[in-house]
């Protein structure tokens, strides 16, 4: 047998990317786990998820050959993490992709070369087995041609990649034989083969031959461009090179497991199967949590935030099972950073921020965990009292889903009290939740059907709007309407799209909206209006127009951008750069842009931030932006290569894609950013910057809306008008007196409210003297029942306190009506409560008379209803209830 190389995870990742780079592929950076402009995905869940725009033809890549190591998250089967050898919530997918370039004849020899060549992975060919789609004779023949033995090729009907409507095709999977010592099945087991459910044959690579469109009519039509999509799990391949029994005994996880051992003190990995599961859960989950927070997601009760919160709570509970009672996850962030530093250096750079988020969430969960224990103790007490001796399944699931209690933990507590748990009911509730999650994920991998309308259109189109807002002689080089290429278009045609050889119209990008304006013929006649501009697949500016006269391909026209609108948009775009930097300066370097919108009359800026933004910090940000405006700083733009731009300190905004040449916008020494948008020449053109609103819009995402220039002046003028009106209403001579006058009126109002409350209390006391005199005898004790005229439930409780202090009867029932609503209160003496008479039972019996409901403690209960006319009936029913 050929000796296996010894490579660590960083070496495997680098070798894979280097191999495909040497074969003409562009190395794509690992995209953020938080998808950008893709609402179908909760997380980036595969390498191909970042390539969808290329495969469906919306964008033509700079290079049709691409390769990546993409961090990914999948959470559809969290419960299995730690129990299996290779199940993870976050993993890295190595992949190589071809968009209409190479196909089976190229990718199969490359795969064999990477896997078996001594220069690369150097695997023993005898260890490799290949499965293929039975009807895919091309793939079979190509594998045979590169040297794969016939008995190492296995036909499998499952080798067809199809997720419904969109691209599909056969695939081929590559398995590594780890040897008989890894075999967990009998020799005659039907799953004991490459491709079966076993531990011996490890799937390491899947190559998809995307060659068909699965149509809405459920047919398979050839794609305009055949594509290659592959995926190799880094963790799996590393386990082979490091001869690890599972993925967890590799350099990607063992430092985390060793650190968890130190926190535990008494538990060691490899000594107990149940303990090992907890170690694996911790190691897996802290990686996912760290990377997710580093990419801008934050714990919450919905969406991505809920996933982070759930993983963190599972990890904390796993720690408790190992005897770790102190917060520990935040301390593991630097370890994650060091493991992944070779390819993900930003994790270590942001470690303090990530750890602070995790630490806060750990502290919060401690309180939640205690709340779960309180609920569990109450459930156990109720089960004993009712003598059911079983905790129902839905309660067990609530403990799991809401408080993070695994069913095993609930069973342990229950067994200590001599109880059992309805595990079937728990599993039923779990299945319901998984079905809901599965239905919500149906579109996760959705990929649009390829369109070829503009994909093959590669003529150059130049954007000159940075300097010119009018072009006199622009030629129509591309024209389409109603989804078809055409030579001319008429008014009334639908979906008219034009590409000019030169254009002053900005195409929407980077949050900046598109320009609008007019198309004018050689006679000065307006023939149409540009209403939107987007990028064609090959990045030409694609104009969407409404025509008032015919327009022809090849003809020349004057293009005129709406100048005033464009200049306003420029001001707001420069303001977003100033705002972005000011937020970083005031709130901290962890603040990242999470989205922006640059419109004509306002700007909107979303950013990641953990916690509230105080009014003081917001004022600092606003002042800092205005200071840069009033300093009259020149705004300069340069075009350079990406490395030079980074040396200049340019900030790259979240997941924007940058080409070989990049445009850098520099605002003095204050801010330098990558940006392809339009900007002012000097900050003084903004005139004034004013924040209009700030608030949260999602888990850990804040939003600022602001205005500049004339819109800022109008905003302040409107506020001045409101102050002037307020001054007139308050009858003060000057606006500066308004705050003092408001404070005076507030104090007077508070004093009046105190006097009112005092008078109401006196009235209530007078009524109490009359009410408390009317004591009725019932079979279950003495009763005082009456309707009183008081302000509401608060004063009813005051009367009840007075009644209880004087021990005037065994039961008190009071009612009051106001504003079409009724309130009821029932109080029971302590002696009667001990005898089993409960205020809650009585209130439930009489509340229907007022069309209401309520409850409370055994000695005090209350109810509200919408039928004051039923009060007398309720009081009568109270006596009847006690006479039973």
Task: Walk me through this protein's architecture.
By secondary structure, this protein is an alpha+beta fold. It has 5 domains: 9-244, Bira Bifunctional Protein, Domain 2 (BirA Bifunctional Protein, domain 2); 256-440, no CATH class; 462-561, Elongation Factor Tu (Ef-tu), domain 3 (Beta Barrel), CATH 2.40.30; 568-718, Threonyl-tRNA Synthetase, Chain A, domain 2 (2-Layer Sandwich); 764-882, Diaminopimelate Epimerase, Chain A, domain 1 (Roll). The strands form 8 sheets. Strands 1, 2, 3, 4, 5, 6, 7, 8 and 9 form a 9-stranded mixed sheet that branches. Helix 7 (273-294) packs across helix 11, helix 8 packs across helix 11 and helix 15 (563-587) packs across helix 16. The radius of gyration is 35 Å and the shape is globular. The termini are far apart. Residues 440-445 have low confidence and may be disordered.
Write the layout of secondary structure elements.
Blueprint: H1 9-22, E1 26-28, H2 52-55, E2 65-73, E3 90-99, H3 104-116, E4 128-132, H4 137-146, E5 153-155, E6 160-161, E7 166-177, E8 201-214, E9 220-233, H5 234-241, H6 254-264, H7 273-294, H8 303-321, H9 333-339, H10 346-349, H11 351-386, E10 390-391, H12 393-403, H13 407-416, E11 420-421, H14 423-440, E12 462-463, E13 470-481, E14 484-485, E15 488-489, E16 497-500, E17 502-503, E18 517-520, E19 526-535, E20 541-547, E21 551-552, E22 556-561, H15 563-587, E23 592-598, E24 603-608, H16 615-630, E25 635-641, H17 642-647, E26 661-667, E27 671-674, E28 689-698, E29 701-708, H18 709-730, H19 738-771, E30 776-778, E31 781-787, H20 793-806, E32 811-818, E33 821-828, H21 830-834, H22 839-846, E34 852-857, E35 860-865, H23 871-882
Parallel strand pairs: 1-2, 4-5, 10-11, 12-17, 31-32
Antiparallel strand pairs: 2-3, 3-9, 4-7, 6-7, 7-8, 8-9, 13-14, 13-16, 13-22, 15-21, 16-20, 18-19, 18-22, 19-20, 23-24, 24-29, 25-26, 26-27, 28-29, 30-31, 32-33, 33-35, 34-35
Helix pairs in contact: 3-4, 6-7, 7-8, 7-11, 8-11, 11-12, 12-14, 15-16, 22-23
């Amino acid at each position: 047998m050929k000796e296996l190389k010894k490579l660590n995870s960083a070496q495997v990742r680098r070798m894979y990317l280097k191999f495909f780079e040497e074969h003409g592929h562009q190395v794509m950076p690992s995209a953020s786990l938080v998808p950008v402009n893709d609402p179908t995905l909760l997380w980036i869940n595969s390498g191909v998820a970042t390539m969808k725009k290329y495969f469906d033809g919306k964008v033509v890549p700079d290079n049709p050959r691409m390769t990546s190591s993409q961090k990914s998250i999948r959470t559809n089967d969290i419960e299995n993490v730690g129990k299996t050898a290779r199940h993870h919530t976050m993993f890295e997918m190595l992949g190589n992709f071809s968009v209409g370039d190479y196909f089976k004849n190229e990718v199969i020899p490359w795969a064999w070369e990477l896997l078996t060549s001594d220069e690369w992975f150097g695997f023993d060919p005898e260890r490799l087995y290949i499965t293929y789609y039975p009807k895919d004779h091309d793939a079979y023949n190509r594998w045979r041609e590169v040297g794969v033995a016939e008995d190492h090729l296995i036909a499998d009907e499952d080798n067809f990649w199809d997720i419904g409507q969109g691209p599909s095709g056969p695939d081929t999977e590559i398995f590594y034989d780890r040897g008989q010592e890894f075999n967990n099945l009998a020799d005659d087991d039907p799953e004991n083969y490459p491709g079966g459910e076993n531990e011996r044959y490890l799937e390491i690579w899947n190559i998809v031959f995307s060659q068909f469109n699965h149509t809405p009519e459920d047919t398979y039509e050839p794609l305009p461009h055949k594509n290659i999509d592959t995926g190799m799990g880094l963790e799996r391949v590393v386990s082979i090179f490091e001869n690890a029994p599972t993925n967890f005994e590799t350099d990607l996880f063992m430092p985390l497991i060793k650190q968890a051992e130190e926190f535990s003190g008494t538990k060691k990995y490899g000594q107990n199967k149940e303990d090992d599961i907890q170690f694996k859960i911790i190691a897996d989950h802290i990686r996912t949590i760290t990377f997710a927070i580093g990419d801008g997601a934050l714990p919450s009760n919905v969406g991505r935030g809920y996933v982070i919160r759930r993983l963190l709570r599972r990890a904390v509970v796993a720690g408790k099972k190992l005897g770790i009672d102190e917060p520990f996850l935040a301390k593991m962030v630097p370890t994650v950073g060091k493991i992944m530093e070779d390819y993900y250096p930003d994790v270590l750079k942001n470690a303090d921020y990530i750890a602070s988020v995790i630490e806060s969430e750990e502290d919060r969960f401690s309180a939640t965990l205690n709340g779960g224990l309180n609920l569990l103790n109450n459930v156990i007490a109720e089960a004993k009292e009712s003598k059911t001796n079983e905790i129902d399944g839905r309660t067990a699931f609530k403990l799991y889903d809401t408080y993070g209690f695994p069913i095993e933990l609930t069973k342990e507590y229950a067994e200590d009290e001599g109880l059992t748990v309805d595990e079937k009911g728990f599993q039923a509730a779990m299945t319901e939740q998984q079905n809901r999650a599965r239905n919500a994920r149906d579109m996760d991998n959705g990929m649009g059907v390829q369109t070829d309308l503009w994909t093959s259109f590669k003529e150059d189109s130049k954007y000159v709007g940075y300097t010119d807002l009018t072009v006199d002689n622009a030629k129509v080089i591309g024209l389409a309407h109603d989804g078809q290429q055409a030579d001319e278009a008429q008014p009334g045609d639908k979906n008219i799209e034009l590409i000019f050889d030169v254009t002053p119209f900005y195409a929407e990008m980077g949050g900046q909206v598109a320009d609008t304006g007019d198309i004018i013929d050689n006679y000065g006649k307006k023939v149409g209006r540009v209403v939107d501009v987007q990028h064609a697949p090959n990045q030409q500016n694609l104009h969407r127009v409404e025509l008032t006269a015919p327009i022809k391909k090849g003809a020349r026209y004057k293009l005129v951008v709406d100048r005033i609108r464009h200049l306003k948009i420029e001001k707001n775009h420069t303001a977003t750069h100033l705002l972005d930097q000011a937020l970083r300066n005031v709130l901290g370097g962890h603040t990242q842009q999470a989205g922006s919108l640059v419109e004509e009359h306002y700007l909107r800026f979303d950013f990641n931030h953990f916690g509230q933004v105080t009014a003081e910090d917001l004022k600092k940000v606003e002042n800092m932006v205005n200071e840069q405006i009033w300093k009259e700083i020149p705004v300069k733009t340069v075009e350079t290569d990406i490395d030079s731009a980074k040396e200049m300190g340019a900030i790259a905004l979240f997941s924007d894609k940058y080409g070989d040449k990049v445009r850098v916008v520099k605002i003095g020494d204050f801010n330098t950013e990558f940006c392809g948008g339009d900007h002012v020449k000097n900050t003084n053109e903004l005139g004034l910057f004013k924040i209009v609103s700030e608030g949260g819009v999602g888990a850990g995402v804040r939003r600022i809306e602001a205005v500049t220039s004339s819109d800022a002046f109008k905003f302040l003028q409107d506020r001045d008008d409101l102050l002037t009106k307020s001054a007139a209403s308050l009858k003060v001579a000057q606006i500066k007196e308004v705050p003092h006058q408001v404070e005076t009126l507030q104090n007077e109002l508070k004093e009046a409210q105190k006097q009112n409350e005092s008078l109401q209390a006196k009235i209530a006391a007078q009524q109490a003297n009359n009410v408390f005199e009317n004591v009725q005898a019932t079979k279950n004790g003495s009763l005082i029942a009456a309707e009183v005229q008081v302000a509401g439930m608060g004063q009813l409780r005051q009367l009840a306190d007075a009644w209880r202090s004087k021990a005037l009867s065994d039961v008190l029932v009071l009612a009051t009506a106001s504003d079409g609503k009724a309130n009821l209160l029932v109080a029971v003496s302590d002696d009667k409560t001990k005898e089993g008479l409960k205020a809650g039972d009585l209130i439930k019996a009489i509340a229907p008379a007022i069309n209401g409901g309520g409850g409370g403690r055994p000695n005090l209960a209350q109810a509200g209803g919408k039928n004051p006319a039923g009060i007398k009936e309720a009081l009568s029913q109270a006596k009847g209830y006690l006479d039973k």
